[in-house]
Write a structure and sequence with these properties.
The N and C termini lie far apart (84 Å). By secondary structure, the chain is α/β, with parallel strands linked by helices. It is 34% helix and 13% strand. Strands 2-1-3-4 form a four-stranded mixed sheet, covered by helices on one side. The protein is elongated. The chain has three helices and four strands; from the N terminus they run αββαβαβ. α2 crosses α3.
Length: 142
């Protein structure tokens, strides 16, 4: 008399684990290569942190060359070819402030940039309706 065996009803997860580990290694290698940004040396200052609220802030970055970049949120990822003029900055800021009047507005400027250029950008932001503009700095190195 032949003995009947029941089919196994277990799932072999070893191939799944192998695939997941390969994907993990690929993502660990690829993600640092995807991060791009504008290199800005911020001035150092010891000030208190501001409460950002629930809204993503409007961050205006001025590079050492004087180019203006606009970003919604706090990420430092910018396309170096997507800089804007002062007029475009006014238009974009006005549109954002019309849609979200309480959005925080911050300026990040390279410390080697002329003070007058920072003032021009702050004036453009004020002209477009931003009543409070914050300056982003780095904490001093100890």
């Amino acid at each position: 008399m032949a003995v009947r065996r029941r089919p196994m009803s277990q799932i072999n997860v070893v191939p799944l684990i192998d695939v997941m580990l390969v994907l993990l290694v690929i993502s660990m290698v690829a993600v640092p290569m995807l991060t791009q940004g504008i290199d800005v040396d911020l001035p150092q200052n010891s000030s208190e942190l501001l409460e950002g609220g629930d809204d993503n802030p409007l961050v205006v970055t001025l590079s050492e060359s004087g180019r203006i970049y606009v970003n919604i949120g706090v990420t430092d990822i910018y396309d170096e070819d997507e800089f804007v003029s002062l007029e475009e900055l006014k238009d974009r800021t006005a549109k954002v402030l019309n849609a979200r009047p309480r959005v925080p507005v911050f300026v990040r400027a390279d410390e080697r940039l002329a003070y007058g250029q920072v003032v021009e950008v702050m004036q453009a932001l004020q002209d477009s309706g931003a009543s409070n503009v914050g300056l982003i700095t780095e904490p001093p190195e100890v």
